[in-house]
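lol ok so funny story. i was supposed to be doing the assay writeup but got distracted and ended up predicting the structure for this chain instead. priorities right. anyway since i did it might as well share w the group, maybe its usefull for someone
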Amino acid sequence: MSIEKLKTNYPVKIQWVHFPLHPDTPAEGRSLAEMFAGRDIEPIRQRLKSLMAEAGLDYGERTHTYNSRLAQELGAWADTQAGGDAIHDALYRAYFVDAVNISDIDALIVIAESVGLDGGEARAVLTERRFSAKVDDDWARSRGVGVTGVPTFYANDLAVVGCQPYETLEKFVKHLLADNDRAS
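and the output, tada:
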């Protein structure tokens, strides 16, 4: 994946900031056909599949979108746990490849446990909504810097939006590093 390759090749630190992508989606999800009513969704699906492939990511044949709020809260908690950053790839795979309803707490517990996180603690975090305020702050921050889609790579008031091939992200990082060198 492009992010891992960047971390290997450059001194970058990834900080996940959550974004409210379709926050009004009900817990049971919404079919893509309903969401894009009146539009041919096959070209959209093929474009996404192509972009993901270019970035080295799998992309399944999902038919629904799900509310990601609880998954974001799980991710915020996981970021505070040793090895927890693995949750982001697992959530991606669950949602975009395996078509898992990531608004379902039981499904999220399975995902958390699959990356070595404590399932009981994950359940408590989700049912007690311990990271709700953190995600609220992230949503406000995302809106404040003008994020319009995911993923967005943002630093020094510059952004690259959408699933991008490694070469595009590498240019972004090199530009940031050059700016830092000039500022030093």
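The two ends are 31 Å apart (CA to CA). The chain has one domain: 2-147.
back to the writeup now i swear
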